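Quick one: structure tokens for this chain, please?
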Amino acid sequence: MELVAEEQMSRDQYVAQSHDDLLAPCQSEAFVNCLGTTEAQCTRQVNQLVETCSAALPAILTADNFNDSAVGYASCVFDGLQEAFGKSSEEIGHCENQAGMR
């Protein structure tokens, strides 16, 4: 997903569009087993992080702020998962590899 110069998107639109992508790892049995959790716990955690992390997004995303905003948002969710499940970024990366996500 990327915005061109004239386009803009509200924070709510972006959060809604990216939500399925953020939940996808929770639907992988290999990923949740590697994390030592369940799909339900993973989904709950991601939903909680989406709520928290999306508050830092600008109200309107434009071509000028989109990339930095999207990267910051994804990092916030990723860091939150690490903390919630007591895993390092390397361990989460390993779980993504196990699940064929990288």
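Helices lie at 11-23, 29-35, 39-54, 66-85, 89-98.
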